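Troubleshooting: if your tokenizer reports a length mismatch, compare your output against this known-good record of 130 residues.
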Amino acid sequence: MTPVLERILYVEDEEMLRTVTNLALTRIGKFTVELCDSGTKAVETAKRFKPDLVMLDVMMPVMDGPATLRALQDDPETAGIPVVFITAKVQPREVEAFRALGVVDVIAKPFEPMGLAGQVRAIWDRFHGG
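Known-good structure output:
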């Protein structure tokens, strides 16, 4: 049986996108969402919040998505948390490279806010063999 997706950590440096995505995930998806504006904060928050899933922007200052992903993977406390990149970099070669890093999927920006929760649930179900 597929585990229930309840807690999502969303990491995005752009405030407007954090706000829109938070609304889409909490109001429509009924998820519990924790927001971070940097990769550094995300690594700390993931240990405390213990999300079921991390949604991670690729292009961020200081610590980008791939660096944040590596930090999460390298820590035994967070290594098992599935990560989805959310990015405008969605050419097939880019998506393939992201998957090779260990993300479970990639959501394209811009996304449709009304459909985001369903998209995230579909990724979760696929990841768990559903």
